[in-house]
Specification:
alpha+beta; single chain; about 200 residues; elongated; Alpha-Beta Plaits
Length: about 200
């Protein structure tokens, strides 16, 4: 019996309220970091992740790193994304996900599941990584000077657009890869970053 099966069996005995309490607690804590692409919900992720580090090693752009033991034993050595400093490149073959044998990172569409060429040509779903927004107080075009450093950085059509000379992020389209943040030339960065678990905090 794996850890997830054991945990579910224990929860059936202790009731739904315990599940909700534990889930809310780990979700609040998870607002402090951003998990790799296609990570399970935080509670399921913690139960599945073996802290093997394979996803960290597999990332060709060194965006995935292991959380410090200072954050607590529950999350020590589990993977997160360093989106504060680097953008996720949305690699075509998702090497971090492919490297995850325990299934803490689960690619929702796999090539072997395609039944015909039409399905193979269907765009694969993108992960929801983080929430990004533009800090108009520090973004140069909002104070007058032209910039455009982030203009060609976004890999997701429609996520970053321009109203005259000012960049605008469409939160309904943006997946939070943070490539625009990496391209930003001001300090502190004019593109703010937030975990998708933030509202649970």
């Amino acid at each position: 019996m794996d850890r997830r099966a054991f945990f579910r069996q224990a929860l059936r005995k202790s009731g739904e309220q315990v599940v909700k309490h534990v889930d809310a607690k780990v979700s609040r804590q998870a607002s402090r970091w951003i998990r790799p692409p296609f990570a399970l919900d935080e509670l399921e992720f913690l139960l599945a992740c073996t802290r093997c580090g394979d996803c960290v090693t597999a990332c060709p752009h060194q965006v995935v790193f292991s959380l410090s033991a200072r954050l607590g034993a529950r999350v020590a050595a589990t993977p997160a994304l360093d989106l504060a400093n680097k953008g996720c490149h949305l690699c075509e073959d998702w090497p971090c996900v492919s490297a995850c044998e325990p299934g803490a990172l689960v690619w929702p569409v796999r090539a072997e599941e395609a039944e015909d060429e039409d399905e193979e040509d269907t765009p694969k779903p993108l992960p929801q990584l983080a929430r990004l927004s533009i800090d108009t107080a520090t973004c140069l075009p909002y104070s007058g000077p032209e910039c455009g450093a982030c203009a060609h950085s976004c890999p997701v059509p429609g996520a970053l657009s321009w109203q005259q000379t000012r960049p605008v992020i469409d939160a309904t389209v943006c997946i939070g890869c943070a490539q625009c943040r990496e391209a930003c030339i001001v300090e502190p960065k004019a593109i703010t970053l937030q975990s998708r678990n933030h509202q649970a905090a």
